[in-house]
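Friendly challenge for the regulars: who can give me the structure tokens for this chain first? No prize, just bragging rights.
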Amino acid sequence: MAYTFTRRLTADLIFFYDDGQDRYVIVPAPPFPPTYDNVEEFTIQGAEATVNWQPLESLSFFAGITLLDTDPTDLPYAPETTVSCGANWRFLDRFKLSLDGSYVSSIHVNSQTRKADTENNDTVGSYTLVNGKLSYAFDGLAGKYKGELFVAGENLTDVDYEYQPGYPMPGANVMVGIQLEI
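First reply, four minutes later:
Bragging rights claimed.
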């Protein structure tokens, strides 16, 4: 459901329920080789809420939260809590500054739960990321194309995190680029 408080303030609230079955799983040997079967069932239920606020034509904020409840509780890549927020600011006619942050609670990982009747004990810890981008919009050749020059930074607080145990994600990093629309 969505609600518009004012032209500049909106909110959404979503509830969901996913009842899955015939999940593709590995049936380990013996006998060799392992076989595949559709045997497991799962449910995912949760809620998602978002708020968007634009106090000025040139400034906007957003925030969101997702809450999940899964069965089995060790379902991979299904964090209990995810939070995001950010801001976009247009200034000096052609510049735009975007900042965002996100939090992801610890999650079960790997495909161990895809084996029939096993538990997934592999997890990675929660993490919070902050990213930013500064861009400059331009037009060229009498309006025949437009583009954007940008510098973007990811993981600006240099957080140590990983999606898989033993595979760390990059630390703070910066990109410079150009985007053209012809």
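The longest strand covers residues 35-56. The chain has a mean pLDDT of 89. Your move, everyone else.
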